[in-house]
Design a protein that fits this description.
Chain A is an alpha/beta fold. Chain A is 34% helix and 15% strand. The two termini of chain A are 35 Å apart. The N terminus and C terminus of chain B are likely disordered. The chains are: A alpha/beta, B alpha/beta.
């Protein structure tokens, strides 16, 4: 087997140009586009590309953060910093029904929490603002069913995705035609890999949430994952105890559902090297993905991003 | 940025082969050998392999790494294009994993459209199959000029070099006839990784490079036109001090100070700035997304092409092209589709199918329509001229998609070949006496009343009464009856979908001429398709076209049966009868909706004329209609 080495980076120019092209196509073709902003590294790259695509104009579309109320505190602080820069509008939506029902990943489990606070919340927000194009940071290399996702992915008026009736995509000539009530999800990072994302962050000096960098953090080992204790809502089960370990996160989401990895990588160079040596895939840390096989496809059909 | 060095670093390729050639296994193995399969995925793979192939012990089924969707797992085949990413120390790769199954040709064309190279798989036991030829033809059609032929399952033919030689020689001949410039052949055993990432001990007679070696060394980027071209994607106008044209350069290079022309027009300007978020550039080349500022104000917008002024792109509105049909419904010549090329979207219709191409043999066959997965050589006409390039020299300005205007589905991809000379030779003659003047001298506003509905709904009866009333009011009218037209100008047309489309197109054009002559035209025609009614509507100016839906239930029409046609249709004596064995697509938003149930024709005519009062009135202060 070949040694794992980081690839050359010239191809980042090509990926960047392709993503900018996609952003511009959205702005030119849809009445009310939005960029879904999840605060993670992919969102940071998206935001950077969004600004580049329309420079010197300000981005002609707002960001939308679907807040589950269980995000890491550092993520929310980071989001608020982005909003404070003032060049892009940041909309925040929380599912009011979920709040009323007191939905919690710790009580109701990952599946219910994700459905109510993410999937349903996203649909509410898209309907409320009448967005007809929602840009997201999903990459095809993340997961098997994503590998077949289109760059412009058509959704019916109920936000459903039909994997058997996707529009074929040729060249970079995207079919942007939809009817009233229908929408598209657009993925400018489709052709990026996790490695590309980190190398681009390093090359461009893009700020990311500090949780990606290793440092001693309070964690609890639960169900095979290291869960960080981020606030007082986290309750210990019998036999559990909080330990301080040197950890970082490869993906960010709701803190009770996001496993940390033990790592000493505290800089971008160290993260990239660690990844070149890495023996596990990115989404492994996500509790929601460990449902039965192909669960992502099912969630997507129901409207999950 | 050096475009050439850049294009060396990323290779987009596709894999294609027939069902059971072992394509998914080969690709899975390639990812594994490139070191791209992490431990957790490997563990899942081992688990899944044991579950599915209890008999095979601990052998890994590499196909499971790349077979994604639930539906595919159930069917055991790959049904859609899947994209995979891997890298070696030398290069990054994007692989479009294309399905081999017969009915999914469209997915292969999709994958090939962005690829520079194809890996074609052949099962050593079976040799070249019709599908091998088909896949190679589609690669060639979509502009791929280099192929790696992987002769797989060599272990199942005893690793016999003769078998490999025979297959590769046959393939080299095939590739040559199809215009593939470069072919590399190699024998592989995908599950064992022989010649995939490492040389094979089982195939010692093959001393050439492995598949990974070949991919790392392959030329990237198809040959593109050297002349500068950039389709305008978005006009950047943050305030009155800045106006830039954002787009991705799809050919050649541009430098500050270069003279350019905004096409399809002839307005020229010089490049004042090449703007990017990382600072202005002195020059930029193919593949770069930039924003161009010109040295003077001009009216360029999305869809225009900024081109080298000394070597501009050809401009035309009629072309010869290849089409790969992707729609569930067949292509109907003369139906209007939306055509998107680069960043421009125009209305287009296929004027003629010159021939259909048998994708297995490349034989040219006569055809009246194109069905799903069929390839045709056609002439298309656009409602406005565009700047273009032949597909062979520029994929962006020569490749287009057709979109169904009712469903918005992508129904075809097309590759422009050349412009028809005719386009340049037929001009619009300017006339001084125009529609407004003619209508004005008759004291009326020209109008088209389009009656649509089932046979026997009462269209002609009502239209006749309406014409009598309008005539009595002093209007100049003409009733164009669908049945009568079929005795003359449409004598050559029958009732197939293709002929119905053409029938309505001609009636629409005639009605349009009459409106242009200043008349109020009443058209009575079943006109069963929304798409054609919409195309006719678009011939007219705003407010000129009034769609009248004569809404009589089928049961009622059938019971009336004034011409005895329903009885014949039910008896099977007439085919393609609307409402019986041919569809009627109900209007979605007609200007006038006549519910005929329980009303006499006179009442309905009265009702319609009442609704027309405003439209018929001469505008009080409209110079356009003043005498």
């Amino acid at each position: 087997m070949n040694a794992r080495l980081a690839p050359r980076t010239d191809h980042l120019d090509e990926l960047e140009a392709e993503s900018i092209h996609i952003f511009r196509e959205v702005a030119a073709s849809f009445r009310r586009p939005v960029m879904l902003y999840s605060i993670g590294k992919d969102s940071s790259v998206l935001l950077h590309l969004l600004r580049k695509a329309f420079y010197p104009a300000k981005p002609p579309l707002p960001l939308l953060h679907v807040d589950t109320t269980w995000k890491f505190r550092e993520m929310i602080a980071f989001r608020d910093q982005v909003a404070a820069q003032g060049d892009v509008e940041v909309l925040v939506h929380v599912n009011p029904d979920g709040v009323r029902q007191g939905i919690s990943p710790l009580v109701h489990g990952a599946t219910v929490h994700t459905d109510v606070m993410k999937t349903q919340a996203l649909k509410q927000a898209l309907d409320q603002y009448k967005f007809d194009a929602a840009i997201g940071g999903a990459r095809r290399d993340e997961e098997k069913s994503r590998a077949k996702e289109r760059v412009f992915s058509f959704r019916n008026a109920q936000h459903r995705w039909d994997p058997k009736h996707q529009r074929p995509e040729f060249w970079h000539t995207y079919n942007t035609q939809i009817r009233q009530g229908e929408s598209v999800r657009v993925f400018p990072l489709s052709n990026w890999t996790e490695m590309d994302v980190w190398q681009y962050i390093r090359r461009e000096g893009i700020p990311v949430v500090p949780l990606y960098f290793a440092k001693p953090r309070p964690v609890v080992a639960r169900d095979g994952a290291l869960i960080m204790v981020d606030d007082e809502r986290f309750t210990l089960r019998e036999g559990e105890r909080i330990e301080t370990r040197m950890v970082r996160f490869r993906t960010l989401g709701c803190y009770p559902l996001t496993g940390a990895v033990e790592s000493t990588a505290a800089t971008l160079d160290e993260i990239i090297q660690e990844m070149a040596d890495s023996r596990s895939s990115e989404r492994q840390g996500r509790v929601i993905d460990q449902d039965p096989s192909a669960s992502m496809e099912r969630k997507k059909q129901e409207g999950y991003f | 940025m050096d475009a050439a060095a850049n294009s060396q670093s990323l290779l987009r390729f596709i894999t294609c082969g027939s069902v059971d050639d072992g394509k998914s296994t080969l690709l899975g193995r390639l990812l594994y050998d490139a070191g791209m399969v992490p431990d957790d995925q490997l563990a899942a793979l081992a688990r899944d392999s044991r579950k599915l192939h209890a008999e095979a012990g601990d052998a890994l089924d590499f196909a499971l790494l790349t077979d994604g969707l639930d539906a595919e797992r159930e069917q055991g085949i790959t049904i859609d294009v899947a994209y995979r990413y891997f890298h070696t120390a030398r290069r990054s790769f994007i692989v479009a994993d294309c399905p081999g199954h017969e009915q999914y040709t469209r997915n292969m064309a999709t994958g090939a459209s962005n690829a520079e190279l194809a890996v074609v798989l052949v099962d050593a036991r079976k040799g070249l199959l019709p599908q091998t030829r088909r896949h190679t033809y589609i690669c060639s059609l979509l502009g791929i000029r280099q192929v790696v032929l992987a002769v797989n399952k060599m272990d199942l033919v005893g690793c016999d070099e003769t078998v490999y030689r025979e297959i590769s020689e046959a393939y080299l001949q095939l590739a040559q006839t199809l215009g593939i410039a470069k072919v590399d052949c190699l024998p592989v055993i995908a599950p064992g990784g022989d010649n995939v990432g490492t040389p094979s001990a089982r195939l010692p007679w093959y001393q050439g490079p492995t598949l990974l070696d070949l991919l790392e060394a392959a030329d990237a980027a198809p040959a593109q036109a050297a002349d500068f071209r950039m389709p305008v994607q978005w006009v950047n106008r943050p305030d009155h001090t800045f106006r830039g044209y954002a787009g991705t350069i799809c050919g050649g290079r541009v430098r500050k100070g270069d003279e350019v022309v905004v096409q399809p027009g002839v307005t020229r300007a010089r490049i004042a700035r090449i703007v990017t978020a990382d600072g202005d550039l002195d020059s930029a080349g193919e593949g770069q997304a930039v924003t161009l500022c010109l040295d003077r104000e001009l009216d360029a917008s999305r869809g225009d092409v900024i081109a080298d002024a000394l070597r501009p792109a050809p401009v035309a509105d009629q072309f010869a092209c290849h089409l790969v049909w992707l729609g569930d419904n067949a292509l109907l010549p003369n139906r209007t589709y939306a055509l998107k090329i680069g960043t421009r979207t125009v209305n287009a219709r296929v004027m003629a199918i010159k021939h259909k191409v048998d994708v297995n043999t490349q034989a040219k066959l006569a055809a009246r329509h194109l069905a799903l997965n069929e390839v045709g050589y056609c002439t298309v006409g656009l409602d406005e001229a565009i700047a273009f390039e032949p597909y062979a020299t520029n994929r962006t300005l020569g490749g287009f998609i057709l979109i169904d205007r009712q469903t918005n589905a992508t129904v075809a991809c097309g590759m422009l070949d050349f412009a028809l000379k005719r386009a340049a030779n037929v001009h619009w003659q300017h006339v001084d006496v125009d529609k407004a003047v003619r209508g004005g001298s008759m004291g009326q506003r020209p109008l088209c009343l389009w009656f649509t509905g089932l046979s026997g709904a009462g269209k002609s009866t009502i239209a006749n009464l309406v014409e009598k009333r309008l005539h009595a009011q002093g209007h100049h009218t003409y009733l164009l009856d669908g049945d009568n037209v079929r005795h003359g100008i449409n004598k050559d047309l029958g009732f197939t979908p293709e002929d119905r489309v053409e029938n309505i197109r001609r009636i629409g054009e005639v009605a349009h001429l009459m409106v242009d002559a200043g008349l109020i035209v009443l058209v009575s025609a079943i006109s069963p398709y929304r798409s054609e009614r919409r195309s006719v509507r678009e011939l007219f100016d705003a407010g000129e076209f009034v769609e009248v839906f004569v809404d009589t239930p089928l049961a009622e029409c059938e019971q009336r049966d004034p011409k005895g046609l329903y009885r014949k249709a039910r008896a099977g004596e007439i085919r393609n009868f609307t409402g019986i064995d041919a569809p009627y697509e109900v209007p979605e938003a007609p200007e006038v909706h006549l519910h005929t149930a329980g009303l006499r024709a006179e009442q309905l005519a009265e009702q319609l004329v009442a609704q027309l009062v405003e439209r018929l009135a001469m505008p009080a202060h409209d110079d356009g209609y003043a005498i």
